[in-house]
Amino acid sequence: MKKKVLAYNRVEKPVLDQLEKEFDVRFFKNIDVDKDPEFLEWLGEAEGIIGLALPVTKQLLDRAPNLKIVSNVSVGYDNLDISELTERNIIATNTPDILTDTVADTVFGLIISAARRIPELDNKVKSGNWTEPLGPEHYGIDVHHKTLGIIGMGKIGAAIAQRARFGFDMDIIYHSRRRKPEAEERFDAVYRDFDQLLGESDFVCLITPLTPETEGMIGKREFGLMKNTAIFINGSRGKTIIESDLIEALKKGEIAGCGLDVFEKEPMDLDNPLLGMKNAVTTPHIGSSTWETELAMSDLAAKNLRAGLAGEKPPTMINAEVWEDKG
Ligand code: GLV
Ligand code: GLV
C-alpha cells in the first residue's frame, strides 16, 4: 500500500504529479485546517506532510499520529513548532540556499521600486494622468552610493549586500546575532549595534527569520530612530515588525517610505491602511516566487519527503537531533 501524504497550499505541478506516482497524495488549499473534515481525516492517516505555511502546532500534531516528516516548501519555518516535532521524533525540513538569490532580487526590486516610486508612477501613466512633464513632486531618491543597513546577515542578507556593494556602490552596515567576518571582508560591511544601524541607514532592510526573539523587533521606538528620509524594507515575516507602528511612522513622516513583501496577516484585510498609501510598495509574499526557484524548492521538498519516508536522512533537515536519535 502506498504511504499517505498530505500536500498543502503549494507544491509545483510536475513535482506533485511525480509524488502522486509514489505516494497516495491528497492536496489541500484554502481550507480551515481546524475544521475541514476531509483534511482532518487525511491528517489522521498521513505519514508525510509537504507544503507551504501549514501551521503545525501541538494541536495539529495531536491529530496526526502517523506523521514521520513535515517538509516545508520554504526556507522560513516559523509555521512549525520545532520543539514539539522534535519531542515526537518527527523530522522537519525546509528549502534553504536555492532561493537565496531570488529573494535578494525581490528585496532589491522593493528597494528600487520604493526609492524611485515605480508603482505609483506606473499608475500615473496607465491611468492617463501623465499629461505634462513631471516636476519635483514626482522625484525619487537615489539608491546608488547610499547606506544600506541589513538586519540579519545570513545567506540572503549577504546576497543583498553583494548586489548593493558591487551593483550600486552602496555602503553596507549590518546587525546580526553574530559578527560575520566573511561579509565584512567581501562587502566591506561594517557591524553596528541595532540602534546605530537604524539611525545611519538610508535603507533599512529586515531579513531575519521570525523567532520569539525577533517577533515585533521593529516598532514605534525603532521607526522613530530612523532618518525621516529612510526607506524601510521587510523581506522577513510580517510579525517581525509592529505593522500599525509602521503605518503611523509613514503617516507622520517619520520615515519616507517602505517596501513590503510580508504582512502581519496574509492575505491582508481590505481595510488595511497600507492599501491606500502611495509610499508603501507592496508585493503579496512572492520573495521566492519565480518559475525556476519555486520548481527547485518543490523539488528539494519532495527529496526531503522521500528520504524521510524511506528512513534516510533528508538533505536539508531543520531538527537534525531527531536523526541522531534514530541513528
Ligand atoms: C518564503 O517566505 C520562505 O520562507 O521561503
Ligand atoms: C543571521 O541572520 C543572524 O542573525 O546571525
UniProtKB/TrEMBL annotation:
GO molecular function: oxidoreductase activity
Domain named D-isomer specific 2-hydroxyacid dehydrogenase catalytic: residues: 5-319
Source species: Virgibacillus sediminis
Keyword Transcription included in the entry's annotation: no
Keyword Hydrolase: no
UniProt family annotation: Belongs to the D-isomer specific 2-hydroxyacid dehydrogenase family.
Family matches, as Gene3D superfamilies: NAD(P)-binding Rossmann-like Domain
EC number(s) recorded for this UniProt protein: 1.1.1.-
Domain of life: Bacteria
Protein name: 2-hydroxyacid dehydrogenase
Matching InterPro entries: D-isomer_2-hydroxyacid_DH, D-isomer_2_OHA_DH_cat_dom, D-isomer_DH_CS, D-isomer_DH_CS1, D-isomer_DH_NAD-bd, NAD(P)-bd_dom_sf
Ranges of residues in domain D-isomer specific 2-hydroxyacid dehydrogenase NAD-binding: 108-287
UniProt KW keywords: Oxidoreductase
